[in-house]
Amino acid sequence: MLDRITHAQQTIADSCGSLDRPITIMEVCGTHTVSIFRSGIRSILPEKVKLLSGPGCPVCVTDQGYIDAVMQLADRDDCLIATYGDMIRVPGSDGSLETRGSKGNIRVVLSSEDALQWARERPDTTVVFIAVGFETTAPATAVVVKEAAAEGIENFSVLCGHKLVLPAMRALLGGMNDRIDAFLCPGHVSVIIGSGAFAQIVADYHRPCVVAGFEPVQIVEALAEICRQLAAGKAELKSLYGAVVTEKGNVAAQRIIDECFEPADGYWRGLGRIAKSTLALREPYRRFDAFERFGLEDGPGRENPGCRCGEVLCGLIEPAECSLFGTRCTPEKPVGPCMVSSEGTCAAWFKYGRARGRGK
Amino acid sequence: MCLAIPARIIELDQDRAVVDAMGNRWKAKTTLLPGVKLGDVVLVHAGFAISLVDEEEAKKTWELFAQIDAFESTQNRVSG
Fold first, then answer.
1. With an 8 Å Cβ cutoff, is A190 touching chain B?
2. Nearest Cβ partner of B54 from A57, A132, A243?
3. What is the count of structural domains for chain A?
4. Is the Cβ of B31 closer than 8 Å to some Cβ of chain A?
5. Contact yes or no for A247/A253 (Cβ under 8 A)
6. pLDDT in tens, B19-70
7. What CATH architecture does domain B5-79 belong to?
8. Degrees to nearest 5, angle at CA A336 with A36 and A76
9. Does A284 share its domain with A338?
10. CATH number reported for the structural domain that contains residue A257 in this entry
């Protein structure tokens, strides 16, 4: 293993030596963010290589408008809320699900199946599933929507906040952040969409895209591959995660996503409205749409004052540049979602980055 | 949130499975992975198997989790 790291480090050093500019690589996966911090990868990279965490944490990129819609549902007496644990502490304009859960109307679920099961057990009231997540998570929502339709479970509803990674990468390269030289592509999103899905980004924007898993050695090797390409003036698609990811991805999962959802324009925190970047329920499943059923809107929300999560998500600033970071905004008392989520960039900086800073 | 864990299918009834990773067992559905068999190692995310995983890769991940567990418990002891 040490051989592999040494070899990758040498490639990175050689590539940096032949380039007279810094190299900026963005990862768009919260699990990569955490793995990079936890393993201390930054500390073995030359100063020339800058790693940015992009919009890769589903909780973080969820717009404030959506969070506020969730809070409106939490205040109602005619519905129950089933949510993944990641969402429970995200602050809306006024409180979070955690602070509103006193009525026993909110339940943390590990799977969409648990949400549907709750609806089966409580036919007297509507269970709303807070469906966030990228392509990795969307199929799980689609499966239960189809089940609900097949079984006629009409008291089940979905507040669909699923997002697609590729349109966000395009939005960044299309003018929001022109410093990005290459992408470290998300491993588990690629399981679903296939590594081949990034070919179009490489072709359209001439940026290297390398898919990697979460083993630190593999991440370092992916960074080395990116540096090698940049030094050679190349932009190619590579996958180092062949043990899990195929070029075409999980076709059954893609099919069920297409069957239940259609791409829709939608809001992202920090990135704003991006065309065809979110998933909306399509006919005949639209009757399960909680936005329609409860007359809610997924408009652009108002950020918490002073919070700069949006700029962090676009890789425009580092967490420490936000005046709230580590002072008014900490993992115990978060202001913005990037500090709430364990995969958020600010939370990772707080947990791992500050400790390293103190050592210097 | 896209965290996914490799686990072995130890029970399978249509698309309802019980999976095992390092002795931890839980329910998962195989709806998104038609054709899986008892004994296959799959990547499980949010209660659904989303991909087949080769045995070596799964072992590496399990070892990594064990190391993180060991590391974090050391950290807790140091700080606590």
1. no
2. A243
3. 2
4. yes
5. no
6. 999 999 999 999 999 999 999 999 999 999 999 998 888 888 888 778 777 7
7. Roll (2.30)
8. 125
9. no
10. 3.40.50.11740
